[in-house]
Amino acid sequence: MADLTQNPSRNWGTLLSALKTPWAAIVVILSLVAMLDPANLQGTISFAGAALLSTGRYILFAVFLLAYLKATGAEVLVAKAFEGRQTRMILFAALFGGLAPFCSCEVIPFIAGLLALGAPLPAVMAFWLSSPLIDPPTLLITAGALGWPFAIGKAAFAVGLGLFGGFLLRALMSGGAFQNPLKKEEKKGCGSCCSAPKMEGKPVWAFWKEAERRVKFRQEFGSNALFLLKWLALAYVLEALLVTYVPADVIATVVGGDGVLPIVTAAFVGMPAYLNSYVAPPLLAGLMEQGMSAGAAMSFMIAGSVSSIPAMAAVWSLVKPQVFATYLALGISGAILSGILFQLI
């Protein structure tokens, strides 16, 4: 039998990694509720369980769709958006940014590959801005938590922000800005969570005819189902706490009402307080129940997505600081404009 005491540092590392998981967070939260407010424990679990079940059909379809796209190799279609005239590239890059079946860190090697192949920076920026905002699973989870109008609105604003950033960067570059936007030494990857997506070949839509692709489908289905389940379970537990313990008048005072100030406030709060794209919709649903305006919720979600650590790491690792600053400025201004437009609609 193996001696597990031979490498105590490795054992402690494994333990610490386990404690950082959403499952551990759920156990800790519910344990605290049981100790500090035992009368509310059952209500918290019931609230989170009912919310998770109501979103179940969206989760199942999202997992199936993502596994299907991965098994078929559909991500190669995204690379084709960066072919042809630059105007066409920006249009398709912004559109495909919201449809690409990439995990957040896959964007980094994908973008690195595009830049290495000489793809123009405005088209790459259009993809960069729209990709963190929406993808098929996020669209469905957002619809389940906040309704289809909100989900479709976010998807439209994602494409709009990509177009806005891409064409603005093109105009700035035509005026002489960002002539040498890339760092001399580019980082090759994003850590251990994802491998670089394929950029050539053709999708095989009838993937079940190939054994390797069937295995890929099963692996993606299982891993993504577990990923969504654990994060959404945590999200709904946090929403239950939010609705129960945070006074509605506090939320309404800070980000409630129909003015521009709550929308601006939500954008600047949302950018540093980035939330996982699957956690944010349930929490925003709770905030809106407490008095948060729809425009502020949209502004908060878009600003938080643009400022996600993988998205910012992608920009910082590949381009110079002035391009990084432009990315953040486009993200915050786009979030505010999106919130104002959504509030008016």
Topology:
Layout: H1 8-19, H2 22-36, H3 41-54, H4 56-72, H5 76-79, H6 86-97, H7 107-116, H8 121-130, H9 136-146, H10 148-174, H11 211-245, H12 248-255, H13 260-270, H14 280-289, H15 294-306, H16 309-318, H17 321-344
Helix pairs in contact: 2-11, 3-11, 4-9, 4-11, 6-8, 6-10, 7-16, 8-10, 9-10, 9-14, 10-17, 11-14, 13-15, 13-17, 15-17
List keywords for this structure.
mainly alpha; 345 residues; globular
Structure description:
- It is a multi-pass membrane protein.
- InterPro entries: DUF318, UPF0718.
- This is Permease.
- It is found in: Cell membrane.
- It is a single chain.
- The protein is mainly alpha-helical.
- The chain has one domain.
- 70% of the residues lie in helices and 0% in strands.
- It contains 17 helices and no strands.
- α4 (56-72) runs antiparallel to α11 (211-245), α6 runs antiparallel to α10 (148-174) and α11 (211-245) runs parallel beside α14.
- The longest helix is centred in the middle third of the chain and has 35 residues, at 211-245.
- It is globular, with a radius of gyration of 21 Å.
